[in-house]
Design brief:
6-stranded parallel β-sheet; WalR-like; Tscrpt_reg_LuxR_C; DNA-binding; alpha/beta; elongated; 10 helices; Sig_transdc_resp-reg_C-effctor
């Protein structure tokens, strides 16, 4: 029996996934969570074979949570199941050492098959997405610039960002200017759009 922890914040989608996997005689969902912050505690409590994780979760995004699972409990393999199919998200997922990356619009039979293959030690990635990621532009932003932009995306002003990252307001403004230039954007809002479309945030 393959044990699975499922992380999905949309109740209807989570219910559908549970119903879908309940049909499988060799797969058992041992825990369901609706927040990224709850993934690691659930994984430690249940020691599943596979954690199926959405990217866009409250509390902590799914890719950050997947990286933590890999670091702290590497025996648990991770499968990202998402509607966010940008190449940048796949690159980030691979950096987080996920075992699989599947889009939510894939045929339902693919999910159970992916869980079995991942548990067997294979890596499962949507082939079309893999090709897109191969040819996609790399993120030109540094980790700190990405962090500044992520906070700006949450609506934080320069002074708030400075306080949270222990920087001066001038340094934050310099980062934001550099980000706009590096992305070839018209302004900060355009930079956010470009970064989101590429899956860099």
């Amino acid at each position: 029996m393959i044990s699975v922890v499922l992380a999905e914040d949309m109740h209807m989608v989570r219910g559908a996934l549970v119903a879908l996997l309940d049909i499988e005689t060799d797969i058992e969902i041992v825990a369901e969570v609706d927040s990224g912050s709850d993934i690691l505690p659930a994984v430690f409590a249940h020691r599943p074979d596979v954690a199926v994780i959405d990217i866009d979760l409250p509390g902590m995004d799914g890719l950050t949570a997947a990286a933590e699972v890999h670091e702290k409990l590497p025996a648990c393999r991770t499968l990202i199941l998402t509607s966010l199919g940008q190449p940048g998200n796949l690159r980030r997922a691979l950096e987080a050492h996920v075992s699989g990356f599947l889009l939510k619009d894939a045929p339902p039979s693919k999910l159970a098959d992916a869980i079995r293959r991942i548990q067997a030690g294979e890596r499962v990635i949507d082939p079309e997405l893999a090709l897109d990621a191969w040819s996609a532009r790399e993120n030109p932003l540094t980790a700190r610039e990405t962090e500044v932009l992520r906070l700006a995306a949450e609506g934080a002003e320069a002074a708030d960002i400075a306080g949270r990252l222990f920087l001066s307001v001038g340094t934050v403004r310099n980062y934001l200017t550099t980000i706009v230039i590096k992305l070839g954007a018209r302004n900060r809002v355009d930079a956010l759009r470009i970064a989101r479309e590429q899956g860099w945030l």
